[in-house]
Every structure is written in structure tokens, then in C-alpha cells.
Amino acid sequence: MTTDRIFGVVVILGALAYIAGAFQIQTSFLSDPVGSKTFPVILGGVAILCGLVMILRPDEQPDWPDLKTLVAIAIAAITMVAYAYALKPLGFLIPTAVCAGILSFQISPRALPAALTGLALSIGLFIIFKYILGLGLQPVPKTWLG
């Protein structure tokens, strides 16, 4: 019960910091009504409401995950942070394939299907993001392209 309340306070503090960061965003004169400031403020408001619910109505007996699950969550979180840092220097395809492969392996621990899933997701998402949505993604490191 206490852990839910503590987590609710942490969520509210994080949401307030998120909203404060949203107010620092510079907007241009050509922005839409739900622009670069409004949407993060709305998300922060929803997070504050969720934190309040956790404080006011905590779970009587929360079920904590076992050690194996906590390790899997930590591996997934570290993978996602490493992915974010690897995107710019390594391009889209390589980090996405590795990240998707690791996460796929966590879901079903078979190496070959996980590697193929990572590769297929990497190529498929690149095609969607680059050619259908028109995002300016770099497929591989810039040094490879000359």
C-alpha cells in the first residue's frame, strides 16, 4: 500500500517536470492548436491524474514481480536506452535490428527466429518510415555512404 503511494508521488513529480519542460518548448507562429506545447501538457495532466489515483486508491496487496522478471525488465530498459544512443551514429537499420532481436528473444528465447524478426522489423519499419511517412532516416552510418 505504501509503495503505491510512493510511486504515485514519483509519477506526479515526474509529470510536473515533464510539464515544466513542455513550457520551455519554443513554438513557431505556424503551429497548430494542439501543438508542441499543448500535447505534452495534456499528457502530463493525465499522468498527474494517474498518480493521484494511485495515492488515493492504493492496492491493498501489490504483487511484485520475481527476480527473473525484474532482470528481463532491466534488460529491456537498457536495450531501449542503448538503442536511442545508437541511432544517430549507426543509422536506423543496425540498431533497430539489434534492439528488435533482443526484445524478440526475451519474448521467445529462440535465437534464429529472434534474429530474423529483428532483421525483418528493421527493414520493414525503415521502408514505412522513410518512404511512406517521408521521415529523413539515415539507413546506415554516414561514413558508409561516402
TrEMBL record:
Show the stretches that span the lipid bilayer: 38-57, 69-86, 92-108, 115-137
Q: Does the keyword Calcium apply?
A: no
Q: Which InterPro entries match?
A: DUF1468
Protein origin, superkingdom: Bacteria
Question: Pfam families attached here?
Answer: TctB
Task: List each copy of the DUF1468 domain by range.
Answer: 6-136
Which keywords appear in this protein's UniProt record, sorted alphabetically?
Membrane, Transmembrane, Transmembrane helix
Question: What's the protein name?
Answer: Tripartite tricarboxylate transporter TctB family protein
Q: Which species expresses this protein natively?
A: Mesobacterium hydrothermale
